Amino acid sequence: MSESLLARHRAVLPSWLSLYYEEPIEIVSGSGRHVTDADGNTYLDFFAGILTNAIGYDIAEISDAVRRQVDTGVLHTSTLYLIRQQVELAERIAELSGLSDPRVFFTNSGTEANETALMLATQHRRSNQVLALRNSYHGRAFGTVGVTGNRGWSATSLSPVKVSYVHGGYRYRSPFRDLSDADYIAACADDLREIIETTTSGDVACMIVEPIQGVGGFATPPDGLFGAFAEVLGDYGIPLISDEVQTGWGRTGEHFWGIQAHDVTPAAMTFAKGLGNGLAIGGLVAEAELMDDIDANSISTFGGNPVSTAGATAALDYLLDRDLQANAAKLGGQLLQDLRDRAENSALIGDVRGKGLMIGVELVEADGTPAPAAATRVMELAKAHGLLIGKGGLHGNVLRLAPPMTLTEHEAGQALQVLADSLAQAEQEHH
Ligand code: PMP
């Protein structure tokens, strides 16, 4: 990337708008699973623009749908008028949700979707007490930052909601780590009940969870955990909200929504990121009882605009028609297995986890403590060999793999090779 753009970025944008890599890249074009930077380097994108380009780059069907809307001369007018594309997309999502009597509301981002969900739940239950998981990330507006349990992402501690955090998200460094899955679920459910009984009045607005914690390092709870949580919550009439911003649209392979691995139907699900394959769109689907319990006019100017909803409908068609969920299950399963096999002989890899095309590799020191410097090094080495990956987790020591869902077997193999070489070199340098 040109020096001057980096200097201009630093001079005019906030200091916390941080960039990946010692030499940050400017992506100028994309095709399939590849992106090209301003210097002409091409990379296989195993972070898919942090899950925005969930399907891939330069998909004609999606671009054409957007272009057709742009060609009408109307990018947007107002949500005070009927918008056909918005109604159509809402119908599709309502049907896919599996919720009883669902209503859909569109926003421009995941943060706004979660803000809306929190507002609805607090109003519906007349309470500002909320339950969330430790190590969570739900956004960085005033309400959502309050339910974000990952300190590195909590920009302010002043929050309008009163939050109690429970175990159940990040198992690897939790006191319950070595329990069997069944005992782990029981311990977390007990913890939830105790937290409700001892830190809240019992009149809690909602519990919000990520089925797999994204920013938190693809921390993956055992199947059934949130079903057990729902039983506890049911005793108090507390609605469960599933934040599907990273886990929705089939990315986890086995289910269309991440929460479905837990045999529970939540009161609401929020979504964003991958839905528009890069377009700014988010939203939530909720039971009408929850969605319609506010007395207000429309609460978003741009949410559900015709450009975003037309593009998102085309993206949804594309991923359903090609059964990309099955592709995520197949290739994700292979990647996970291969990485787990490699972990056996690697002192650097402490844990490999995830589902479908959402895989986390936690790097550790010889004594098991987090190894964030090694994660940064692996990312740099992978980039030098044409592979973009991400990192995350409370300690910044978890490599995150989340390629577009159109990934091919050949590309999966290429990525594994680069990753294996990068991990081996980093391990050699590190230990
Ligand atoms: N929820 C989750 C689970 C997320 O991963 C994110 C983004 N990292 C958000 C909410 C916030 O979404 P956005 O950045 O679109 O506001």
UniProtKB/TrEMBL annotation:
Belongs to the class-III pyridoxal-phosphate-dependent aminotransferase family. Keywords: Aminotransferase, Pyridoxal phosphate, Transferase. It is an enzyme of class 2 (transferase). Homotetramer. This is alanine--glyoxylate transaminase. It comes from Saccharopolyspora halophila. Its EC number is 2.6.1.44. Pfam families: Aminotran_3. The keyword Transferase applies. Its cofactor is pyridoxal 5'-phosphate. Signal peptide: none annotated. GO terms for molecular function: transaminase activity. SUPFAM superfamilies: PLP-dependent transferases. The keyword Transferase applies.
